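JOB MANIFEST
job_type = single_chain_structure
chain_count = 1
residues = 121
[input]
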Amino acid sequence: MFRKILVTAAMLAAFGHAYAAVDVNTANEDALRGIKGIGPAKAKAILDERTAHGPFKDPADLGKRVKGMGGHTVERLQAEGLAVGPAGAAANAQTAASSQAKGTTVSADASKANPTVTVKK
């Protein structure tokens, strides 16, 4: 009985983690690297492009502006939890709302209009 409860809890935790979206327009390097398929070089390229030319409007904009990220790559990264553009903002807001209920904090950086979510472990 205990084993079944433990397995169920592990599966629920895995599914919850898989659906936690990382918004490309607000994420830091560590959050981007948490997405399967984004390493240190790709995370740096994304951050450099975002810093130089502003937020990404949509997945196609991300694919055009960051070298080595074509349409299929962006689609695969979205399946892994990367959010881009207006849909990403909605997912980020939903994640922030659920995080507040779980005891995490949401703070707004003065230099950014989008909130960032800090998870305390």
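[summary]
The helical segments are 2-18, 29-33, 40-53, 59-65, 71-79, 85-101.
Residues 22-118 form a domain with the DNA polymerase; domain 1 fold (CATH 1.10.150.280).
exit_status = 0
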